[in-house]
Amino acid sequence: MREKKAKNLKTIFFGYMLFVIVSVIVFGFYFWIGYLSADAYIISWNILAVGLWIITTLILYLKREEESRAIKKE
User: Fold this and answer.
1) What residues make up the domain containing 42?
2) How many Cβ atoms from other residues are within 10 Å of residue 27's Cβ?
3) Per the CB 3.0–4.6 Å rule, which of 15, 27, 38, 66 could disulfide with 44?
4) Contacts of 55 (CB under 8 A, 6+ apart)
C-alpha cells in the first residue's frame, strides 16, 4: 500500500513537471513569435505557479494523511 501511494505521488509529480516543461516551451514560443504580450506571458507564469501550489498542497495533504493512518495502526 505504501509503495503504491509513493508511486502515485511520483506519477503526479512527474506528470506536473512534464506539464510545466511543455507549457513553458509553448508559452515561450508564442512570446518569441510575438503572439503573446509580456502581460500574457506573466499571467501564464502565474497560472503555472497556482497549479504548482495546488499540486504541492495535495501531495503534502496525502503524506500527512498517510502518516496519521500509520500512527493510528500502531
Assistant:
1) 2-73
2) 19
3) 27
4) 12, 13, 16
pLDDT at 36: 63
Question: Pick from 17, 3, 13, 28: which is nearest to 60 by CA?
Answer: 13
Distances (CA, A) of 28 to 25, 32, 42, 56, 73: 5, 6, 11, 24, 49
Report how many domains make up the chain: 1
Alpha carbon distance 48, 50 (integer Å)? 5
Q: What pTM was estimated for this model as a whole?
A: 0.47
Tens of pLDDT, residue by residue over 13-54, are 777 778 778 877 877 777 777 666 677 777 777 777 787 788
- Model confidence at 4, pLDDT cuts 50, 70, 90, reads low
Q: 6: which residues sit within 8 A by CB, 6+ positions away? A: none
